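On clarity, I found the account of how folds are encoded harder to follow than it need be. For illustration, here is how one protein appears when written out as sequence plus structure tokens.
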Amino acid sequence: MQPINFQKNIIHQFRNLPDHEQELIRAFFGQKKRGFYVDVGANEPIIESQTYHLEQLGWSGLLIEPLPQYIDILKAQRSGTVVGYACSSPENHGKVLDIIVAGGHSTLNDAPIAINSNSNEVAQVSCRTLDSILEEHHVPVGFEFISIDIEGHEMEMFKGFSLDRWRPQLVLLEDHVINHEKHRKMTQFGYQVVLRTGLNSWYVPKSHAYTFSLAAQFEFFRKYWLGLLFRKIRYMR
């Protein structure tokens, strides 16, 4: 695979499209017809899915989702293997925990991380480490793509996910950037950020020596440094 260099013209080519993130993911992999994905916090089967479009190309993978209402429609509408668990720490492995049910903002944390997202609905879900799920399903080391969107519970999930062992080629990590914890964890695992789209940071192994355009560098600086204080204040309200 020849990795894409995220230069300005490539970003602008897709930025105004409704599914520009999905277009960029396909461009990253050169429209590859076969690959393996892991979708942690799969949620809706099609709407805003980061992996449905890959299935349309012929990819296979795991759809990890704890909420029964989404598990049912994922099984009905997707070809990937649906895994009905929430991903958390080794301490929570095998436990049944309360999850705040708030649609795409559902979370194992005390409150939804998304601003203006509130819910009094709580459900109980079974938890496992991501390592145990990947091992059970014989996921190949160095698989192509993982999307992680679990609404603020990522640091707990990382305790049970040996990223330096599995080494996916591209990690799409949702990060509201109210601190640098997730970014530091990714760099500790030997990954570098190459792009920021919406709430998602794109990480690739440092060893792959990807370039990082000036436009992407500024976007990273703006998001991770310039706006950090204001974002912290906003999320504390």
Notes: Residues 7 and 213 are 5 Å apart (CA to CA). The radius of gyration is 17 Å. The longest helix spans residues 214-226. Strands lie at 36-40, 60-64, 81-83, 86-87, 96-100, 122-128, 145-148, 170-174, 191-197, 200-205.
